[in-house]
Every structure is written in structure tokens, then in C-alpha cells.
């Protein structure tokens, strides 16, 4: 089994990274963490070159090629993003848009049945202390990933990070320590 974490925060050592790393340490299997801040991933150009006859994937040659290979062999993906301006970071959105080259929803003419669904743990961190403040957006994001055939097994919302770092939130630490990772 393999678990990969994608930290879509521009801060490599911030709250989002701390939560992802805590989950990865608990996984007790092969793990890999990618920080988008270290990667060169360009936005989707909407060229549909990835779905033209004879083409097997995105035509943009950047670090996303490495991530496509990782997704082919992973069992579980942990995608973490801070909430900026009421939604995921630009880095997270760029990653999701680039999935179009390899993952299409069932209703798409490019849909291909996969042998297995990738399990997904979504991690959202936010400075706002109100856990329900961005719930509509978080539910939308979860449903979007389900539409893309991911098996969303957990959604973690970390609040109040503007005043208290995730690593200092005792209730969060207890939750993560007791989280069932029988993936």
C-alpha cells in the first residue's frame, strides 16, 4: 500500500503541512510528501491535447508528469490546502485542473473505467475559527472529487489557525492520534 500527501499550501512548513505529515506518519506504510511550493506545475491550457488520438496524457512537460505516475501507483491521496478567499489555494486548483489529462468523470466522453478508486483524505486549514464558515465550499469540493471517482474517506477541517497553530491545538492532535487509518 502507498499513501501520498500533496501540500497545496505555498508554505512548506505551515499548518497544512503539519496535519498532512501527522497523518503520513500514522499511515505505517510507504509514504511520499509533495510540497507544491517545490514543484513547477503550470496551469491547464485547455488545449485537449491530452485526449487527442494517439496521445496518452498531458502535453505540458512539467512536474505534474511525476505526480501522474505517483497517482497510478497510490492507494490513498491526502490533499491539503489552506482556505484563501473562501476556497482552496491556486496551487490546489491548478493540480485539480491538471487531473483532466488522466481522470475524467463518468459523464465525460474521455471517461475510462479504473480498476480501483483512489482513497482521498481532504485537509482544509483556515484562520477563521468557525468550522461551518466555508462548509458549502468544502462539500462542493468533496462532491467534485467523488464525481472524479475518488473515494473520499475523510474530510478534516482545521480552524482558528490565525491565532493557534495546528500543532498547538490539543483537540486536533487527539483527533489525528486516534484517526483510523486502516486504509
Report on the structure:
The protein is of the alpha/beta class and 183 residues long. The protein is 28% helix and 19% strand. The protein has five helices and five strands. The protein has a five-stranded parallel beta sheet with strand order 2-1-3-4-5, sandwiched between helices. The model has no long low-confidence stretch (mean pLDDT 90).
Give the quaternary arrangement of the chains. single chain
How many domains?
1
Q: Identify the CATH architecture.
A: 3-Layer(aba) Sandwich
The helix fraction, in percent, is 25-40%
Question: Strand order within the widest sheet?
Answer: 2-1-3-4-5
Average of the residue pLDDT scores: 90
Note the run of SSEs as H and E. EHEHEHEHEH
Named CATH topology: Rossmann fold
In a few lines, what is going on in this structure?
This protein has 183 residues and is α/β, with parallel strands linked by helices. It has a single domain, classed as 3-Layer(aba) Sandwich (Rossmann fold).
Task: Pick out its properties.
single chain; 183 residues; alpha/beta; Rossmann fold; five-stranded parallel beta sheet; 19% strand
What is the strand and helix layout of this fold?
Layout: E1 2-7, H1 15-26, E2 30-35, H2 64-73, E3 76-82, H3 90-98, E4 119-125, H4 135-147, E5 151-158, H5 170-177
Parallel strand pairs: 1-2, 1-3, 3-4, 4-5
Amino acid at each position: 500500500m502507498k499513501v501520498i500527501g500533496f501540500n497545496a499550501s505555498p508554505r512548506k512548513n505551515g499548518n497544512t503541512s503539519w496535519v498532512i505529515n501527522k497523518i503520513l506518519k500514522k499511515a505505517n506504510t510507504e509514504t511520499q510528501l509533495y510540497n507544491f511550493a517545490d514543484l513547477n506545475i503550470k496551469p491547464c491550457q485547455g488545449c485537449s491535447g491530452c485526449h487527442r488520438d494517439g496521445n496518452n496524457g498531458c502535453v505540458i512537460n512539467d512536474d505534474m508528469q511525476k505526480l501522474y505516475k505517483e497517482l497510478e501507483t497510490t492507494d490513498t491521496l491526502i490533499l491539503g490546502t489552506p482556505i484563501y478567499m473562501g476556497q482552496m489555494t491556486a496551487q490546489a486548483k491548478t493540480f485539480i485542473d491538471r487531473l483532466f489529462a488522466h481522470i475524467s468523470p463518468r459523464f465525460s466522453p474521455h471517461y475510462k473505467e479504473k480498476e480501483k478508486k483512489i482513497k482521498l483524505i481532504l485537509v482544509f486549514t483556515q484562520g477563521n475559527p468557525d468550522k461551518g464558515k466555508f462548509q458549502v465550499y468544502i462539500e462542493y469540493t468533496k462532491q467534485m472529487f467523488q464525481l472524479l471517482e475518488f473515494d473520499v474517506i475523510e474530510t478534516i477541517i482545521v480552524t482558528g489557525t490565525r491565532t493557534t497553530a495546528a500543532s498547538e491545538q490539543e483537540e486536533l492532535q487527539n483527533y489525528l492520534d486516534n484517526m483510523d487509518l486502516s486504509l
